[in-house]
């Protein structure tokens, strides 16, 4: 019985933390944020060299062969530093191929993704509310894909797209091929821009390893979004603490006012214990499949909801400055907005929790 | 991460389950009063090594090597079977660890065994009318007269003092010393001359806590725990024990499952409440908190087990206030589910039995009771000071130091 991280896992997080601190400090983050591309090839290459791009890809296909928990731990740190880049979509595409690709397809597709030389993303949601596999309508007939997907992260720079199909199937599409129309949606989280992607008879390869894996993929997304939001929220609390110690009013640091101290304590009490929630949800996907769906559901709803609240309080705690574009809080605020709204809101996941829990 | 139990621990779980087939008691024993049955079973638990594992045999414990996983298995299994486990009353939970750490040999032999069996009930005499959160300002006086302490003054909010044989309390022995010095930790027989216990009626309607008045009460000097004037440090040291006692998340899980049952049995606008979309979400939101608390607890437990307590100090500081809030959320939801029945007062018999009761009025009582933990044992705002200051390194509050 061991519900804790291994030394390797702690080291993995420390390594990326160190990297993020050096390579993407707030000044650099700000530059990237203002540019709005949500991508820095140098940053992505460096992450790929650290093995992040292919973290869960089996070693025989050039990856690090790690588990979903490891992937979630990476997502946490990337959220903590609001690192721009195609990690989320890329990781989901890989997960989809591993869930639904035949052995041959995996051998063909995964190596280029594992070393980050190709960037992939995942196109799941359709319309503003159709995020569940049951509601998907994109379909492949005679090797051609038709349909429209929305909120596809980093589609603008992706080489390949994993697409969720009607009846829960998954297909693999070359982004640069014919019949793929990509439109920037102007997403609010400028570290992770989002696109609408229309498939007009685009050549597609259906993943053959069995349908019905789409929910598992959506649940993986839920866990990664929760982990990202958790990382972002813990960072916001640190930012709040630093600001509260430094900002003086009435001749003393505002941190000395109990209203401020208690706000921080409340946010901490909301967020810190939830670390265990995303750990568990990720671990279930690795080792306790029976509980994976419900754990993912609870984690996505609870963490993104509490994180959004922490973000809102963090803005307020910074006073007028908090409301400015200049204040760093907004970058995490918007990061959490995406984590919360992509692929189901807390309310929607709570309804799913109720269904899975047989309320 | 590995949530499977080792073969050794799995075997241990089987052993515990086998032992638990002895509860409820059968035959003639089943006809004894409940309290006696519990005593009998607890005694067997001590002999088998499942109860009071940290307490040495000579003081009535079962003195087992430390194994947090076994402890956890025992808690889980005893809880699932509804079997009486460690009596975690004020005496066994707070006074005993204090004595184990600071008591003389004689004190340990005399006071610990009866506190464990429940033969002797203890109450905690800390709070005073003018000293609650600011406990170190307490005034209840202890004056040394020969080889006896003479106590004068008043304690308040003393839970179960009306049934207690003994009190462990804090008294001011050096009136001129600084606030945190000059406090002495004393063991006081409740039948001593000059003690008067007056019940206070709680908002629930019941009588569980009291005022205790001292009028020239004489206590032998050998009832001093630790050194004279060191009571504050001693009580703090055991507070650390108390905080380190990682709570039992099973009761929260149980309350949640009762809540779900309640939702299934009530109606909202003519439809079963568990089918109402708003109610489903509200309960699912509570499930988020319950799971978080349970899993955080498991993380803390694992860390403690590996000797990495420092890594989880922060979530540990959060346990009390988080747990209090979550239980209140559960009870509040239940109260709302009761609809108009939520205005019914608890019955006399419910007031006598604390805890889990799933009748309508039982739920009302649980809702009212859920207010207590936000005050008792360090009010929630005081906990938030601790989290802010020790957890996040924020500056100390403006507090009068004298
Ligand atoms: C059910 C129950 C059982 C109890 N059992 C016992 C018992 O057996 N033995 C015993 O000794 N005591 C017992 N108590 C007493 C309990 O420990 C005190 O009530 C508690 O410490 C608060 O003290 P107080 O009531 O004087 O409130 P106060 O200290 O007057 O607090 C009033 C309010 O002010 C807030 N406050 C005070 N100081 C600060 C600060 N510095 N910063 C922010 N907020 C502050 C508090 O949070 C609270 O909300 C019990 C209480 C309850 C409710």
Notes on the structure:
The complex is a heterodimer of chains A (359) and B (402). Chain A is an alpha+beta fold. In chain A, a hairpin with a 2-residue loop joins strand 2 and strand 3. Chain A is globular and about 75 Å long. The longest helix of chain B has 29 residues. In chain B, 39% of the residues are buried. Helices cover 45% and strands 15% of the residues of chain B. Chain B is globular and about 70 Å long. Classes of the chains: A alpha+beta (359), B alpha+beta (402). Bound molecules: flavin-adenine dinucleotide (FAD).
What would the keywords be for this entry?
heterodimer; A: 359 residues; alpha+beta; seven-stranded mixed beta sheet; two-stranded antiparallel ribbon; B: 402 residues; four-stranded mixed beta sheet; four-stranded antiparallel beta sheet; 12 helices; binds flavin-adenine dinucleotide
The DSSP helix count of chain A reads 13
Tally of DSSP β-strands of chain B: 10
Low-confidence stretches of chain B: none
Bound molecules: flavin-adenine dinucleotide
Overall spatial form of chain B:
globular
Computed over alpha carbons, the radius of gyration of chain B is 23 Å
**Radius of gyration computed on alpha carbons of chain A:** 20 Å
Strand order within the widest beta sheet of chain B: 1-4-5-8
Quaternary organization: heterodimer
Shape call of chain A: globular
- Could you tell me which chain pair has the largest interface and how many residues each side has? A-B, 46 and 54 residues
Count of DSSP-assigned helices of chain B: 12
H and E string of chain B: HHHHHEEEEEEEEHHEEHHHHH
- Separation of the first and last Cα atoms of chain B: 49 Å
Strands of chain A, total number:
9
Overall pLDDT metric of chain B: 93
Question: What is this entry, summarized?
Answer:
In chain A, the strands form 2 sheets. In chain A, strands 1, 2, 3, 4, 5, 6 and 7 form a 7-stranded mixed beta sheet that branches. A two-stranded antiparallel ribbon of chain A has the order 8-9. Chain A contains 13 helices and 9 strands. Chain A is of the alpha+beta class and 359 residues long.
């Amino acid at each position: 019985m061991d519900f804790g991280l291994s030394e390797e896992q702690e080291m993995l997080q420390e390594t990326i933390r160190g990297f993020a601190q050096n390579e993407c400090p707030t000044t650099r983050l700000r530059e990237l944020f203002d540019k709005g591309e949500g991508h820095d090839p140098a940053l992505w290459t460096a992450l790929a060299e650290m093995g992040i791009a292919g973290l869960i890809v089996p070693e025989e296909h050039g990856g690090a062969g790690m588990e979903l928990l490891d992937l979630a731990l990476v997502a946490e740190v990337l959220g903590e530093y609001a690192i721009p880049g195609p990690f989320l979509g890329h990781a989901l595409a890989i997960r989809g191929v591993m869930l639904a690709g035949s052995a041959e397809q995996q051998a063909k597709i995964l190596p280029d993704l594992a070393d980050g030389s190709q960037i992939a993303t995942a196109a799941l949601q359709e319309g503003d509310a159709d995020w569940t596999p049951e509601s998907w309508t994109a379909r492949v007939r005679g090797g051609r894909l038709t349909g429209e997907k929305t909120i596809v992260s980093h589609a603008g720079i992706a080489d390949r797209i994993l697409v969720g199909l009607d009846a829960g199937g998954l297909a693999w599409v070359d982004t640069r091929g014919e019949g793929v129309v990509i439109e920037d949606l102007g997403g609010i989280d400028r570290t992770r821009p989002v696109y609408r992607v229309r498939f007009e008879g685009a050549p597609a390869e259906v993943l053959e390893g069995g349908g019905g894996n789409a929910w598992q993929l959506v649940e993986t997304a839920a866990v990664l979004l929760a982990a990202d939001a958790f990382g972002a929220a813990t960072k916001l609390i640190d930012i709040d603490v630093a600001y509260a110690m430094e900002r003086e009013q009435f001749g003393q640091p505002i941190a000395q006012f109990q209203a401020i101290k208690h706000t921080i304590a409340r946010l901490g009490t909301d967020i810190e214990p939830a670390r265990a929630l995303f750990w568990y949800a990720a671990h279930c996907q690795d080792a306790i499949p029976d509980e994976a769906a419900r754990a993912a559901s609870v984690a996505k709803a609870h963490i993104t909801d509490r994180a959004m609240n922490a973000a809102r309080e963090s803005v307020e705690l910074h006073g007028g400055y908090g409301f400015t574009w200049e204040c760093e809080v907004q970058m995490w605020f918007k990061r959490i907005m995406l984590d919360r709204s992509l692929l189901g809101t807390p309310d929607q996941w709570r309804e799913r929790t109720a269904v899975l829990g047989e309320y | 991460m590995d949530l499977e139990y080792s073969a050794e621990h799995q075997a241990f779980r089987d052993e515990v389950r086998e032992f638990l087939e002895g509860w409820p008691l059968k035959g003639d024993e089943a006809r004894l009063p409940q309290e006696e049955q519990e005593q009998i079973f607890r005694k067997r638990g001590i002999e088998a090594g499942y109860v009071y594992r940290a307490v040495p045999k000579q003081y009535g414990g079962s003195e087992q090597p430390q194994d947090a996983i076994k402890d956890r298995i025992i808690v889980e299994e005893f809880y699932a079977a509804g079997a009486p486990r460690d009596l975690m009353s004020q005496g066994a939970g707070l006074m005993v660890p204090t004595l184990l750490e600071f008591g003389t040999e004689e004190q340990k032999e005399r006071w610990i065994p009866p506190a464990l069996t429940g033969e002797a009930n203890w109450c905690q005499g800390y709070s005073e009318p003018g000293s609650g959160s600011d406990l170190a300002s307490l005034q209840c006086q202890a004056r040394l007269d020969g080889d006896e302490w003479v106590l004068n003054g008043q304690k308040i909010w003393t839970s179960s003092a009306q049934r207690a044989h003994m009190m462990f309390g804090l008294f001011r022995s050096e009136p001129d010393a600084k606030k945190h010095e000059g406090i002495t930790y004393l063991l006081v027989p409740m039948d001593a001359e000059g003690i008067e216990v007056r019940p206070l009626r709680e908002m629930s309607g019941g009588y569980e806590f009291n005022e205790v008045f001292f009028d020239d009460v004489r206590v032998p000097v050998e009832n001093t725990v630790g050194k004279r004037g060191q009571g504050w440090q001693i009580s703090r040291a055991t507070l650390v024990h108390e905080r380190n006692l990682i709570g039992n998340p099973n009761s929260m899980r149980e309350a949640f499952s009762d809540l779900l049952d309640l939702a299934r049995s009530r109606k909202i606008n003519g439809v079963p409440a568990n089918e109402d979309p708003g109610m489903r979400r509200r309960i699912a939101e509570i499930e988020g908190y319950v799971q978080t608390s349970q899993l955080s607890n498991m993380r803390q437990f694992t860390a403690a087990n590996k000797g990495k307590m420092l890594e989880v100090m922060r979530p540990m500081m959060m346990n009390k206030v988080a747990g209090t809030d979550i239980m209140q959320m559960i009870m509040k939801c239940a109260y709302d589910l009761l609809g108009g029945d939520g205005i019914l007062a608890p019955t006399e018999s419910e007031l006598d039995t604390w805890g889990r009761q799933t009748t309508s009025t039982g739920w009302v009582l649980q809702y009212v009771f859920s207010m207590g933990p936000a005050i008792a044992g360090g009010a929630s705002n005081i906990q938030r000071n601790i989290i802010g200051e020790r957890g996040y390194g924020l500056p100390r509050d403006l507090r009068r130091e004298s």
